[in-house]
Design a protein that fits this description.
Layout lengths: L1 H21 L5 H18 L8 H24 L3 H19 L8 H23 L6 H7 L2 H10 L10 H20 L4 H18 L2 H22 L2 H23 L6 H8 L5 H17 L3 H6 L15 H31 L4 H16 L9 H20 L3
Helix pairs in contact: 1-2, 1-5, 2-4, 3-4, 3-15, 4-17, 5-9, 8-9, 8-10, 8-16, 9-11, 10-16, 15-16, 16-17
Length: 399
């Protein structure tokens, strides 16, 4: 009976992961409705048994803060309460997952297989979009934001994959590259992991996401620096490092003939901080700070999303959190990042999920400045799944 229940839980969790990755995120309401339904289904099957963890406490505090700021902002500023409260919906499935984490069960092999499927399919879409193959237009209409189809894909030749825009497309592949590199360093599924890393790199190039490109370079350096002190094995290190170099070289060789088509990415090197995308971020930053700087009380608890002009397009997760969730919300988000990196690295139980959490969270610290990380639902739920699997593995003493 217990075995049957575990199979049911793993099946539901697998479907949840498939929905998280493959359902179009541009259909925001339906996307979250499906995720809430699947998480609630597992919670109902578990008879609402709750296990307290620091992660549950963290997200309950964050949602409580959002509810308070949404309510007070609506009263004081006349903001739209229902628009503000949609931020609660963003984190509601996460609370359900951590409340009933014991019943969100999925094997590493199942996660690996689903992520391989995503990388293969999304990479093919990225490559076909980059090469301007018209038969992927129907897929673009389903998954990609219409504005990005016109401005990013058609004008700048930036692939969108199965994401709403080129930025999220590049970032999800940074997260997936981390997953397969960590798997490779753990000496698992080497050939497949190598292939998935190569496809992930190609997709990052196709997206021409400057944020993803910079984050990937820094994360790879961090991974090598963080992995070696605890897992150094001369034989495996040289073997895996050689494989990593080959993967990077193959990716650069593949794009050597296409470099002239990477015009947007090239502005990162040609113009640096003078490029228009960075200048636009500075303008948004200064405008947002100008709106909130004199409201000291609401700067502490947050102004709510409706009060902040163009809050959905700030291109800076820290700025969004500070303006919408307040200083307290920003402290909570930073605590989440640093707890996952520092505490988990030095005090966490030794298993592969520990390193996936540490490396992915480090990527988040970087990506969150010029873009969004945990505010991207796919990245947030994938990171939460790593945490849930870590808690299971730590309890069972598995590596």
């Amino acid at each position: 009976m217990v075995l049957l229940k575990n199979r049911v839980y793993e099946s539901v969790t697998s479907v949840l992961l498939l929905v998280i990755l493959f359902f179009p995120t541009k259909l925001f309401s339906l996307y979250f409705a499906l995720i809430v339904a699947l998480t609630l289904l597992t919670f109902v099957l578990a008879k609402f048994e709750v296990k307290k963890t620091i992660y549950l406490a963290f997200f309950v505090c964050l949602v409580g803060l959002i509810f308070i700021s949404s309510s007070l902002s609506s009263i004081y500023f006349g903001s739209n309460f229902f628009r503000n409260i949609t931020e609660v919906v963003r984190f509601l499935p996460v609370i359900i997952i951590f409340a009933g984490y014991r019943f969100f069960v999925i094997s590493f092999l199942r996660i690996y297989s689903i992520l391989v499927l995503y990388v293969v399919l999304a990479s093919l879409v990225n490559i076909f979009q980059f090469l301007n193959f018209g038969f992927v237009n129907k897929i673009s209409e389903i998954y990609n934001d219409p504005d990005h189809i016109q401005n990013s894909l058609e004008i700048a030749n930036r692939s969108l994959g199965l994401s709403g825009g080129p930025g999220p497309n590049g970032i999800i592949f940074v997260v997936l590259f981390i997953f397969f590199l960590t798997t490779l360093l753990s000496n698992r599924y080497k050939f497949v992991s190598l292939t998935m890393m190569l496809l992930s790199l190609i997709s990052i190039f196709c997206s021409q996401s400057q944020t993803a490109f910079v984050a990937l370079g820094l994360v790879v350096l961090f991974i090598l620096g963080a992995w070696l002190p605890k897992n150094y094995n001369k034989k495996y290190f040289y073997q895996n490092f050689s494989i990593l170099l080959i993967t990077l070289s193959c990716s650069f060789i593949y794009f050597s003939d296409e470099i002239q088509n990477l015009k947007y990415l090239n502005t990162l090197f040609d113009q640096g901080l003078e490029r228009s995308s960075y200048q636009n971020r500075e303008v948004k930053f200064n405008e947002t700070i100008g709106v909130v700087e004199n409201n000291y009380f609401f700067s502490l608890i947050g102004h709510g999303k409706d009060y902040i002009p163009n809050s959905s397009a700030l291109d800076n997760e820290y700025l969004f959190v500070f303006a919408v969730y307040g200083v307290l919300g920003l402290i909570l988000i930073l605590f989440f990042y640093f707890y996952n990196i520092i505490y988990m690295y030095f005090k966490g139980s030794e298993n592969i999920y520990k390193y996936l959490i540490v490396f992915t969270s480090f990527a988040g610290l970087i990506v969150a400045w010029p873009s969004s990380f945990i505010l991207d639902p796919r990245v947030l739920f994938l990171l939460c799944l790593y945490i849930v699997c870590y808690l299971h593995a730590a309890k069972m003493g598995k590596s």
